[in-house]
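Table 4 source record.
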Amino acid sequence: MTELDVRLVDVVKAFGDVLAVDHIDLEIRRGEFFSLLGPSGCGKTTTLRMLGGFEQPDAGRMELRGVDVAGVPPHKRDVNTVFQSYALFPHLDVFENVAYGLRRKKTEKDEVKRRVAEMLELVDLPGFEGRRPGQLSGGQAQRVALARALVNHPQVLLLDEPLGALDLKLRKQMQLELKRIQHEVGITFIYVTHDQDEAMTMSDRIAVMRSGRIEQVGGPEEVYERPATEFVAGFLGASNLLSGTIEARDGANAVVVLTSGEKVRVPGDRVGPEMREARLGVRPEKIRISARGAAPPEGRNAIHGRLVVSTYVGVSNVYTVEAPTGEQLTVYAQNVDAPDERVPASGEEVVLSWHPQHTFVVEPG
């Protein structure tokens, strides 16, 4: 049985009339890089603050390694937090910033020196011991904050959008660094972000939150390839959603008649036995666009439409297609040479095709 570092049971938190966290249940495994992902106001930061002891739940249990920590103050929990603002002490040098927690625990001098050196090596900042925070770049300051949080070897490290203040290029580098560091230290990381790419890059699992509730929990591939709800499908990348009626079950697939009258297939295990109406989705990069009259590859779903606009964005072409129902669908086509295929022009009738396996089914709303 997998050991758990964090377990939330029916946790509720309100601020006045606003229900910030609405009866959530969650289990986070030991040594996992786990992200809470969602838009502003979804409850992710409030959940993190309750785990850190900065807020207390109104109801439910919050367990760290099986112990209910409701009411336990932050300094008595075996967790540390890294904030977006770094919160370094400006009057202390890097060594003393990292050593702060060890000093408070009255750790022996030689042990302090050894562990600080070990942490600065881990975050790739050896030789920076004597610098002050004002002499560091944003990325360096964030690494010092991370070293300070890790030096006491907490059970769980909480990270509240720690890369939000960095520029895009540095943020991308730090994402990979954070994942490397987490893998090396083996400590459970719980990471709050509104950035889908960030969560997908680093996480073992992701909880997608909305309006105080958890919409879906799963690995990056699972929540992207098989989103459970319309919200998850739209929040994690772009999705094309189509409505239809389940007509029949054909072996491993179900046949769905779209509102346009065209038929597509979807894996049968994604359609409940009692389901009659279906809301289907397919990601833009899964779709192939061809001029009308071109035969789609055998075994693929195919629907017709009219190309509204084609946009060149460097690594790909983005096509906007109007379906017979009036819905607008998006197609991403990688920018590669394909001399045997003619690119349709705006206004032309086109065929969109994709493998049935790439069709997902979502709950409406």
